[in-house]
Design goal:
Elements: E1 2-5, H1 11-21, E2 26-31, E3 36-37, E4 40-41, H2 42-45, E5 53-56, E6 59-62, H3 64-74, H4 87-104, H5 121-141, H6 156-169, H7 178-188, H8 191-200
Parallel strand pairs: 1-2
Antiparallel strand pairs: 1-5, 2-3, 3-4, 5-6
Helix pairs in contact: 1-3, 1-6, 1-8, 4-6, 6-7
This protein binds glutathione.
C-alpha cells in the first residue's frame, strides 16, 4: 500500500492508523500548492487533487473515512473496527460521517482555492463559529473518557485527532472543550502518533495556496 499525504492534513489520520495497524506501506508526499509529487502530476493520479489517497490492491482509494475503514479491515488487530452490524459498528460509521461532513469540511476556508484551512483573521473567526458547536457536541460525548467510543481507541480517533491538531494550529484554544483537550493529549501519548508527527514534520503551510 502507498499513502499519498501532506504534512498535518487529514491524511494524518490514515497515516496514524496505518502505523497503529502494523501493516506494511510506503509514503508519497504531495505538494498541495503545486499538486506535484515525486512521480509527477498528482492530478493525473487522483483527479480530486486532494489527500489522502491510498494505493491498494483494490485500486486507488480516496475519502479519509473510507480509507480508515479499509485500513481497519486489513489490520490483524480487530479492535479498530467493531464487528459488522453491531451497535458499535454503526456508531463508528456515524462518527466517521459526522467528522467528515460536520467538522472536516467546516474547518476549510470558503475563501481559498483548494480545501485548506483559513489563514486570515476573518476567515478563522468564521470557521471557529461553524466548528465550535460541532466540537462542543463531541466534547460532551467525551465526558469521563479519553476515546470517543466506549473509551477504547478505534478508527474514529485518529480522524478526530486531526481536528484537535487543527484547533492547535489555528490557535482556537480549548475553552469549553476541555474533554477534547484531554483526548488530544491522550492521543499524543500514543507511540504511533508520536512517530507519525515526527515523520511528517512541519505542517503544510497556512499562507500559500490562496
Ligand atoms: N472529501 C475528502 C476531502 C479531503 C481534503 O479536503 N483534503 C485536503 C487536506 S485536509 C486537501 O488535500 N486539499 C487540497 C488543497 O487544498 O489543495 C476526504 O474526506 O478525504
Amino acid at each position: 500500500m502507498k499513502l499519498y499525504y501532506a504534512s498535518g492534513a487529514s491524511s494524518l489520520a490514515t497515516h496514524i492508523l496505518l502505523v497503529e495497524s502494523g501493516l506494511t506501506f510506503s509514503l508519497e508526499k504531495v505538494n498541495l500548492d503545486t499538486k506535484q509529487f515525486e512521480g509527477g502530476d498528482y492530478k493525473v493520479l487522483n483527479p480530486k487533487a486532494y489527500v489522502p489517497a491510498l494505493e491498494t490492491e483494490n485500486g486507488l482509494l480516496t475519502e479519509c473515512a473510507v480509507i480508515l475503514e479499509y485500513i481497519a479491515n486489513q489490520a490483524t488487530d480487530k479492535t479498530f473496527i467493531s464487528e459488522y452490524n453491531t451497535q458499535d459498528f454503526w456508531k463508528q460509521k456515524m462518527w466517521l460521517n459526522y467528522i467528515a461532513t460536520e467538522l472536516h469540511k467546516n474547518f476549510i476556508s470558503p475563501f481559498r482555492t483548494g480545501n485548506w484551512l483559513p489563514n486570515t483573521k476573518e476567515s478563522k473567526e468564521l470557521v471557529y463559529q461553524r466548528v465550535f458547536p460541532r466540537l462542543k457536541l463531541i466534547n460532551d460525548q467525551l465526558e469521563g473518557q479519553n476515546f470517543l467510543i466506549n473509551n477504547q481507541f478505534s478508527l474514529v480517533d485518529p480522524y478526530l485527532f486531526v481536528m484537535t491538531n487543527w484547533i492547535r494550529r489555528l490557535d482556537f484554544g480549548f475553552l469549553n472543550l476541555e474533554n477534547l483537550e484531554r483526548f488530544d493529549l491522550a492521543m499524543r501519548e500514543r507511540p504511533a502518533v508520536r512517530q507519525v508527527l515526527e515523520k511528517e514534520g512541519k505542517p503544510h503551510s497556512l499562507v500559500s495556496n490562496d
